[in-house]
Specification:
- Helices cover 36% and strands 13% of the residues.
- The chain has helices spanning 9-19, 43-50, 73-83, 149-164, 166-187, 214-223, 243-248, 266-286, and strands at residues 2-4, 31-33, 58-61, 87-90, 106-109, 122-125, 191-194, 204-209, 255-259.
- The strands form 2 sheets. A 6-stranded mixed sheet has the order 2-1-3-4-5-6, sandwiched between helices. Strands 7-8-9 form a 3-stranded antiparallel sheet.
- β3 (58-61), α3 and β4 form a beta-alpha-beta unit.
- α6 (214-223) packs across α8.
- The N and C termini lie far apart (45 Å).
- Mean pLDDT is 90; it is low at 232-237.
């Protein structure tokens, strides 16, 4: 299996499980494709990898939910199709926020990312893609435990709602992200704003502050009324350094991740930006790193 180094931890863990299974009497391997400092994979390297003998599946996210950078999905899908390898595209961070292309063979999505309720996930498979559920054991092999019809309906309605206002939400949030990127870089010393500045999701922005513990910074911002994240979007609860930032070769500690909801206001963003420099300074002072 071929996957990028910045996929969700769930995708990478599933790949590690799959390649250890003796599908044809032997185990396989996960081939990892690295990224540049913006978090974007090398489409040529990915294409070369999927052409290798024995590749059964490739996985590439539509865009990174941690830094916002969009991936060259169309070019990778074209190469995978020529090689006869199905491409799994994770659109969890993108669906409902940006237009999706038809460049996929298997599509994975989480309705919670576009405002749906918990309890349901989405997996779409193109015709002629071979598939077989393997685990866990359940009488319903395709939907272990059954499907919550109310949750599925709520997910569909939430997606329709998100799509109906997507153009206005895109312009609104993209302008606010531009403001955040500009002011953070200008007003916070020793900070690195990461991810592509233009070819990105409209609502995600991440920056890392030197000499600052990410969780301490998140706690202090929470005390001030701002809900932000730190570390990887899918592994922050483990307090481990972000595997996404590590793969990009950028600063991994003192990380703050913002995902702006459609209803975010300009005033709210300005209040956050007004308190951020002083918050970072206080956390650095508390850690004995002030003035470094």
């Amino acid at each position: 299996m071929v996957a990028s180094a910045v996929e969700r931890a769930a995708i990478l863990s599933a790949a590690d499980f799959a390649v250890t299974q003796p599908w044809d009497g032997r185990t396989g391997a996960r081939v990892v494709i690295g990224t540049d400092h913006l978090g974007r994979v090398d489409a040529d390297a990915f294409a070369e990898a999927v052409r290798a003998p024995g590749v059964a599946l490739a996985a590439l996210q539509h865009a990174n939910g941690e830094v916002g950078t969009r991936q060259p999905v169309e070019a990778v899908h074209d190469a995978a199709s020529r090689a006869g390898v199905p491409l799994l595209v994770d659109v969890g961070a993108s669906a409902g926020h940006v237009e999706l292309s038809d460049a996929w063979d298997i599509l994975a999505a989480d309705p919670g990312d576009w405002g749906g309720m918990p309890g349901v996930a989405v997996l779409a498979t193109r015709a002629r893609v071979r598939r077989a559920p393997d685990w866990p054991e359940d009488p319903d092999r395709w939907s272990p435990g059954g499907v919550s019809v109310p949750a599925a309906l709520a997910a569909a309605v939430a997606l329709e709602t998100a799509r109906s206002s997507r153009a206005a939400d895109d312009a609104h949030r993209r302008a606010l992200v531009e403001r955040i990127r500009r002011r953070v870089a200008a007003e916070v010393p020793d900070v690195e704003v990461v991810g592509d500045a233009t070819d990105r999701l409209p609502h995600v922005v991440t920056f890392s502050c030197l000499y600052v513990d990410g969780e301490a910074l998140v706690t202090e911002l929470d005390r001030l009324g701002f809900a932000v994240g730190s570390g990887s979007a899918c592994t922050s609860s483990t307090l481990e350094p972000s595997h996404v930032l590590a793969a990009m070769g950028v600063l991994t500690h003192g990380n703050v991740r913002l995902c702006l909801p459609p209803e975010v206001t300009s005033d709210g963003v300005d209040r956050f930006l007004d308190v951020l420099p002083g918050t970072v300074r206080r956390v650095r002072d508390a850690l004995g790193a002030g003035g470094l």
